[in-house]
Amino acid sequence: MNQSYSTIAHGASSTLATNKVLRSTYMLLSLTLLFSGLTAGLSMFLNMPPMTYLISVIGAMLIAMFVLPRFARSAAGIGIVFLITGLLGFGLGPILTMYASLPNGGNIITLSLAGTGAIFMGLSAYALATRKDFSFLGGFLMAGFLLVLLAVLANIFMQIPAMSLAISAVVILIMSGFILYDTSRIIHGGN
């Protein structure tokens, strides 16, 4: 009889710990997204040139590859993550400026933001509610991501509009898979 109580207590504490990790992860994700949005707004306000995107992305990638791993397990790592997302947001400013200048550009940006948020919340809620282990998706997602990179490189030279649309659709599916995969890893205590 005592064993069933300890099993229930262990299950409840495990669920509380998982929910705490998930809540902390999503809170940090929300804050970095907000910071990225602020730096994108600053970039739009300053009317940065399109080359800003390339410089910001390369800078963020270099910091993510060479600086972040050194500080990944310290409090400074959080500041570096904010630096990376801030650079990415700043680079996004010229792209948003271009879309905002189009007819219905504001609607395109708003729909993209709302759609991304709805997909993220829906898939995260699904992974959390079902508690299904999506770790089996890891290999498929990585292979799919590499194939998409090859398709993007091929389409740079071939310039096929239908292929661009297909690549966009596949990227949405792969990134949706990554949401399920990563949320599942958080729930099941994966690294």
Provide the gyration radius in Å: 20 Å
Number of helices: 6
Number of strands: 0
Mean pLDDT: 89
Question: Which residue ranges are poorly predicted, with pLDDT under 50 across at least 5 consecutive positions?
Answer: none
N- to C-terminal distance: 35 Å
Strand content: under 5%
Which structural class do the helices and strands define? mainly alpha
The count of domains is 2
String of helices and strands:
HHHHHH
Task: Give keywords.
191 residues, mainly alpha, 2 domains, 6 helices, 0% strand
Give a quick rundown of the structure.
The chain has 191 residues and is mostly helical. It has helices at residues 2-45, 51-71, 76-100, 105-130, 138-158, 161-187.
Describe this structure in words.
With 191 residues, this protein is mostly helical. It has two domains: 1-101; 106-191. The protein is built from six helices and no strands. The longest helix is centred in the N-terminal third of the chain and has 44 residues, at 2-45. The chain is globular, with a radius of gyration of 20 Å.
Secondary structure elements and pairings:
Layout: H1 2-45, H2 51-71, H3 76-100, H4 105-130, H5 138-158, H6 161-187
